[in-house]
Write a structure and sequence with these properties.
Helix content is 65%, strand content 0%. The chain is mostly helical. Helix 1 (14-35) runs antiparallel to helix 6 and helix 3 (59-73) runs antiparallel to helix 4 (80-94). The protein is globular. The N and C termini lie far apart (39 Å).
Length: 130
């Protein structure tokens, strides 16, 4: 598939944060799927992700990923200033006291993918002022 030359690509500053959020979301989703017994059935898992309340806490990550991808595709995230609202959303999602932070803390010791993805988030966020 050819890439259109006029189509913006994600900025180099957006890419590490986007990938870190996607990695954490994937690891958390897989852990939630194992916890609910849906890990072996992708069709049931897809339905659960969209409708099951046990997966509702992950939707904020999904929504953020979509919003960042769409803004990046439109060329709206060329620098740290433009990315600031998304950085704030990521920080808010993983901040101490949030449901995601509690689940990350609970699952990290037994799920290395979550611990590694959470560390990627921390490193990606360190590139942005608070």
């Amino acid at each position: 598939m050819a890439v259109r030359p006029d189509k913006p690509t994600p900025s180099t500053i957006q890419r590490p944060l986007s990938l870190a959020v996607m990695d954490l979301h994937r690891a958390l989703l897989q852990a939630q799927a194992r916890e609910t017994g849906l890990a072996g059935n992708p069709y049931k898992l897809l339905g659960a992700v969209m409708e099951d309340l046990r997966f509702a806490w992950l939707r904020a990550f999904s929504d953020l990923i979509v919003a960042m991808d769409e803004a990046g595709d439109r060329g709206e995230l060329p620098d740290a200033g433009a990315l600031a609202p998304y950085v704030a959303r990521v920080r808010g999602l993983v901040a101490p006291g949030t449901e995601a932070a509690a689940r990350i803390a609970a699952l990290s010791p037994t799920t290395p993918d979550i611990a590694a993805a959470h560390e990627k988030i921390r490193i990606a966020l360190s590139d942005f002022p608070e």
